[in-house]
Each structure stands twice: as C-alpha cells, then as structure tokens.
Amino acid sequence: MTVEILLDYTINQNTIAIITVAHIDYQTKVIEKNAIFYVKKPALELIKNACLIGGSSYEGRKIAVSYHMRVKHKVPIPINPILHIFAFPTHSPTQYHCSWIFPSHVKAIEKHPTKPNHTVIIFKNSYKLEIPVSYYQIEKQLLRSAGCIIQFSELSVTS
To answer: What is the pTM of this model?
Structure first.
C-alpha cells in the first residue's frame, strides 16, 4: 500500500474506512482498497463534503435516515447512494475519536481475542482494523447500515 499526506481527500468507491488520529501533521487516516492516506482535515468534515458532492448535506442525509429508519444515534449515512457509498460511525460523530466504516467493503467482524470491548474488522481486501468498540455495537451498526442501503438504494431507483 502507498502512504501519502494530503491537505484534503474526496471519499470515493475505494474508501473502506476513515479513522481519526491524534497527530501533529494530520487528523485523519483514510484507508482505501490499495492505499493509505493521512489527511489534515477531520473525518467529519470529509464526510460532510462527500455528502454535498453526492447531492445533499450531511444534516439532510442524517435527518432522512432518522425519519425512515427511526434511528437517532450513530446514524448510518448514505453519502452517495447513486455510487453506492454508505458509511457508519463507530461513535457519536461529535466525539473526537469517531471513525467511519464503509460497510460494502466489510468481509467479516471478529471479537478481539483479549480485549472484550474491541472488534477486529476484516475488509474484502484482507486489511484488518482493530477498533475500540464492542462486537455487538459493530454488528448493530452493520445491520443498521444494511437497512439504510436497502432503503436508500430503492429510493434512488424509484425516483
């Protein structure tokens, strides 16, 4: 995988995860299928910009998902339903350590063998990501995301 530091980043169909990091030179680690980028902008700003590129505001997408799915917290976001780009937050998006996972790239999840409140996400490209969130919470977020994908993929087809 290549490693690069960027001023900005545009979320695309190759984005598999966006991780918040505490570093003096950058705020976000973006994992793509075949590359890792370190970005100066915060994760939520990247998500918000991608939503605008996809045709709506982050806030609008969040309200729509909450309305259709009756979900209030850690809402999965249809960033660009036409391009089939969806993501879910690992924590409340307002929390500093919130990261974003793109469920279409997730192959499996596993309980961490020694840390009960950690999960290992295995992506389709075999990349493994350990996150400080329980297996149950990640499983719940994947299920919510599946519902969101079904709901908003149908809306984009019938519209």
So the answer is: 0.92
